[in-house]
Amino acid sequence: MSLMMDKTADRSRFQAISEQEMQTRRDLAACYRLVAMYGWDDLLATHISARLPDEDGRECFLINPVGLMFEEITASSLVKVNIDGEILQETPYTINRAGFVIHSAVHAARADARCVIHLHTLDGVAVSAMEDGLLPLNQSAIAISRLIAFHDYEGIATNEQERERLVADLGDKPLMLLRNHGTLAAAPTIPLAFLRIYQLEWSCSAQVRTLGLGRKLREASVESIGNTTAIMEAMNLEGYAGSLVWPALLRKLDRTNPGYAD
After folding, report:
1. Which domain CATH number covers 65?
2. Where are the alpha helices (DSSP H) in the chain?
3. Model's pTM, two decimal places?
């Protein structure tokens, strides 16, 4: 089975890009470049997708084209594809089948999952291979510990039959450790999805470093863990991500790697 998908629809049926789609394209391109800036990319592998308004009654989303590094992604290079894998625009690129399988599954199953980020970072993969997963070893890990789902490894994700099992394992959680594979975040907005994956990746890296010390671990009390999770669950994290974190990240990106909005 080919790892690439290049099915196309009758592109003449689709109208010019709306301002809503352009804004989504700009934010998604920025998200790709931020992932590269933080060193979370994996050559041409892994994907970030964002839902768009339905076209012809079918769900559709944006995803990266095969062949571009994350640091090269622009708003115009992103590929619009529907839930059946048909490419809905004129583009010289194709898309990765495994990326389509994972992301289409989550978008189709979760109305709130308007952005999905999947990564293969060294520390994320390391923690995904641990039987206990993410341990409550620090404040960040404690804050997200109740938000993480798990999905067992089934091989390279080109089998569309895996989609049902993956979304069943994800349930209503915003984060997932794909066993022996990597990390995933799903959120209603691109800023919140980025913040969620940042929390998970940061916690995985802290765990790898902590366990690497080879010293006796100091565990947080059950009471403090409960207090931390209660405070985090009461926060308006989506508002914080959108109004404070995302604008700051875009300013940093504009200084270090401009051009994503092209």
Report:
1. 3.40.225.10
2. 19-37, 97-109, 122-128, 139-144, 162-170, 190-212, 222-234, 237-240, 246-256
3. 0.91
